[in-house]
From TrEMBL:
GO terms for cellular component: mitochondrial inner membrane. It is found in: Mitochondrion inner membrane. It comes from Amorphotheca resinae ATCC 22711. It holds the Pfam family ETC_C1_NDUFA5. Keywords: Electron transport, Membrane, Mitochondrion, Mitochondrion inner membrane, Respiratory chain, Transport. Belongs to the complex I NDUFA5 subunit family. This is NADH-ubiquinone oxidoreductase 29.9 kDa subunit. One of its GO terms (biological process) is respiratory electron transport chain.
Length: 241
């Protein structure tokens, strides 16, 4: 039914879903790259769960669900994935200094590409710098300095770059990074059917919530005993017989 809503919401049905197009659910739009996003979220959650004791019931149950869904998503491979993966490994191997820089990876038009390792898998994520609107952001009280106009002294011009020229020592090396090939609408439907939790965008929302919950549960140390012990028979009514 929900996939029917997605199809009805699309004006021109095609083999691939259009990123940002309506899904048929209010406020929920088609995700541009659901497969790598889910694999990254699941891998990060599994890494987080390793910090819990092995006998933690929360860890055991969450790991089971996460690994199950992760296996479903990873089993559906987009067309051209093998060629893309081979090219990606080659780029990472040829430019290790670029992707491992402390500043945060490769600069490009949409942000910065950063290499990360989660659950033994390598991901290249995109970090986008937030845009600030001076007309919206509230003034924090800090006084700024007015920019000087006119001819500058030699000391003031030091460090400036002449248009069209680069100062010696600047690394002008650029790396072109291509995103993972997209899944077809049929492949996305297969994942949605096998997971059985609605649209893949809803599955992503659940995965994001599970990761946030793992952080909260870790901070709360839920595996430890209660500071105030329950009185005898307090939970008897809720026991499963």
């Amino acid at each position: 039914m929900r996939r029917t809503l997605r199809q009805l919401a699309a004006v021109k049905p095609s083999r691939y879903l259009e990123a940002g197009a309506p899904t048929g659910l209010t406020g929920l739009f088609t995700h541009p790259s659901p497969r790598p996003t889910l694999l990254y979220l699941y891998s990060t959650t599994l890494d987080k769960l390793k910090q819990f004791p092995e006998n933690s019931v929360y860890r055991q149950s969450t790991e089971a669900v996460t690994k199950h869904r992760m296996s479903i998503v990873s089993s559906v491979v987009p067309e051209g994935y093998a060629q893309w993966a081979e090219k990606a490994k080659k780029i990472l191997a040829e430019h290790p200094d670029v992707f491992n820089t402390p500043e945060g990876g490769v600069e490009h038009d949409e942000g910065r590409h950063v290499k990360e390792t989660r659950a033994g898998q390598t991901f290249v994520t995109t970090k986008v710098d937030p845009e600030y609107d001076d007309t919206v952001v509230e003034w924090d009280g800090e006084k700024g300095e007015a920019e000087l106009e006119g001819v500058r002294t030699t000391a003031e011009r030091k460090g400036q770059r002449v248009l069209g020229k680069e100062r010696p020592g600047i690394d002008t090396k650029t790396v072109e990074w291509e995103p993972e090939p997209a899944l077809t609408a049929e492949q996305i439907g297969e994942i949605e059917n096998r997971i059985g939790a609605g649209l893949i965008e809803e599955v992503i929302q659940v995965a994001e919530g599970e990761l946030k919950l793992a952080d909260i549960m870790l901070q709360s140390k839920v595996w430890e005993d209660l500071e105030e012990k329950p009185v005898e028979g307090q939970w008897t009514y809720f026991e499963r017989k």
